[in-house]
Prior knowledge:
The chain is of the alpha+beta class.
Amino acid sequence: MDLRRYHETLRLLREDYAPLLPVRVARRRMPPLLYGLAELWDGPTGELYFRVSISDRLPGWFLPHALIHEWAHCLSWTNARTMCDHDPEWAVAYGRLYQEVIDR
């Protein structure tokens, strides 16, 4: 059930809230206090994309929350001149995503 919600959240984000650059999402082994990470990556042929990593140690019920948090970084970095961590633009994107996704 928990993983189903995570995959449904990912599908919704990809369909309705796609940033200007592609997003690649994977669950990865991460340090204990790091739940997720969004990064701008330069692919081998020069294509830019966002890489979102979600800790594989998180309990299933928390996965959609971590995914929304990191996806908000991708949205705010697309619209901002600089890539700040938790600036007001990120907060607006996070609040909007959280309300839309969790309320469904």
